[in-house]
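Could you please review the protein record set out just below?
***
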Amino acid sequence: MAWRKQMRERVLSEARVLAAEGGWDKVRVADLALRAEVSRPSIYKEFGDRAGVGRALVQREAEEFLRGLAVVLEAHRHDPRSALEAAVAHVLVEAGANPFLHAVLAAARGGTDALLPFLTSRPEPVYSSAWRLLTGWLGEVVPETDEDRRAEAADLAVRLTLSHVLLPAPRSEETPERVSRAVWAVLGAPAGR
């Protein structure tokens, strides 16, 4: 069991490197097996196929991203509006610095890359996980606000932030404040405590 977990992590780590170097479309299972020092049948057994490796890689990246996001939200809990601004800023900075995400977006802008749908049109793992995190956090910091409004505000925050990751605004330094302002308008709640 420990070997399987280590093998899985090696494969995903090497898949991330290969995708960052040349885009996901150029990642081949044979190259991945060679770099991860495992057999191709082991990769197929663990992940099903190349697309399975891609799904697992996006899932791992999303989980890491969300852990960082949760830390930022918690660190600024005393001021929910500032917390949301800091969280959006964190996502934008991390997305800009992430070589894997950069490769996916660059390939997509060129008309290719099979991983982009995991970030944009499929709810899992990115959208739904971020929405659940934010909905839960809003429930803690503005419990007096109606649950449906919190869910709607979380949806807006996630969609706007992802939109800015995919297509940055000309004055992106204003994005965190703009997203936060829109979310608090939907909440109809005081912007801070």
User: Anything to note?
Assistant: The chain is about 75% helix and 0% strand.
